[in-house]
Amino acid sequence: MDENLLKNIPYSILDLATVLDGETPADTFPKSLELARQSEKLGYTRYWFAEHHNMAGVASSAPSVLIGYIANGTKTIRVGSGGIMLPNHAPLIVAEQFGTLASLYPNRIDLGLGRAPGTDQVTALAIRGENFNAAHNFPRDVEQLQRLFSKENNSSNVRAIPGEGLNIPIWILGSSTDSARLAAEKGLPYAFASHFAPTYFEQAIQIYKTNFKPSAYLQKPYVIACVNVVMADTDAEAERLSNSVKQMFLGVITGKRNLLKAPVENMDLVWSVYEKEAVEQMLTYSFIGDSGTVKEKLSAFVAYYGVDEVMATSHIFDFEAKLHSNKLFASVFTEA
């Protein structure tokens, strides 16, 4: 396997603003800023926040606010949403918010859009109200956003000020095949949530690449794969640290979502055989180990799937260990 392949691959961060057991979101946000500043120095391309709601351990319910916080505290790294769950919002409001961000931080803001609610059905109903089925309007809402951002919209009765005429890259996010077709049809870059929804990853990116139509925004397909990353100086230590993210996913499948827990020494004392199987399936695209292990596995992954960029999300309890993992992950690309 040609490990030099990674030298040409951009690497980025997806942050869920994970809240640790014993802490609050107020403790979480400064850590996100420190991680973003470190990532900028390490050559990461972008730093995205994911919109989630009603989850005790996830504090990224307002990505546009966090994007401003991180962009203000950094200088060059691109900051964006991975993503804004568009059916939760009126396109005009999204255009105004991201127009404001792009005016404050020119050429640094990304707008990633998803169609899922980013939460459970009861909370989705609380957010969307009578627009509960708004996901069906996703293609139309994306078009409306594009129109609001266009210079040609200046004669419309409804205008996004700020936002109109600004170059704000729109990304389509997906965890199934539906959004792949939309991204291909519109000639937009595509980011897949393979860090928690691996089932349709290969099929979705194949659909996207096969059906891609060049556009004013993009001439050829561009795929970001988001993956779980836990790195340490040894494989054994990385495996131990990864027991935090395994407990987090166990909470997802059992419906008992808690704050991110410290790693246990033995997961077999925590989960059943069936729970282990379910969690490990969700964690299919996870890179856990030391630099050599991750470099080998990631090179094979990039070569096989032909992704253009790798975005890492790392649920690590100890913040110093998280910073170290982030540094090791960058070195996989820079020292390839």
Overview of the structural elements:
The protein is of the alpha/beta class. The protein has a single domain (3-176, 224-334), classed as TIM Barrel. Helix content is 42%, strand content 15%. The chain has twelve helices and nine strands. It has helices at residues 25-41, 63-73, 91-104, 121-128, 138-149, 178-186, 201-211, 235-241, 243-254, 273-282, 291-305, 319-334, and strands spanning 11-15, 46-49, 78-85, 109-114, 170-174, 190-192, 223-231, 286-289, 309-313. The protein has an eight-stranded parallel beta barrel, surrounded by nine helices. Helix 3 crosses helix 5 and helix 11 (291-305) crosses helix 12. The chain starts with 10 loop residues before the first strand and ends with a helix. The mean pLDDT is 92.
Features:
single chain; 336 residues; alpha/beta; TIM Barrel; eight-stranded parallel barrel; 12 helices; globular
How do the strands and helices of this protein lay out in sequence?
Elements: E1 11-15, H1 25-41, E2 46-49, H2 63-73, E3 78-85, H3 91-104, E4 109-114, H4 121-128, H5 138-149, E5 170-174, H6 178-186, E6 190-192, H7 201-211, E7 223-231, H8 235-241, H9 243-254, H10 273-282, E8 286-289, H11 291-305, E9 309-313, H12 319-334
Family: To bacterial alkanal monooxygenase alpha and beta chains.
GO molecular function: oxidoreductase activity, acting on paired donors, with incorporation or reduction of molecular oxygen
Protein name: Luciferase-like monooxygenase
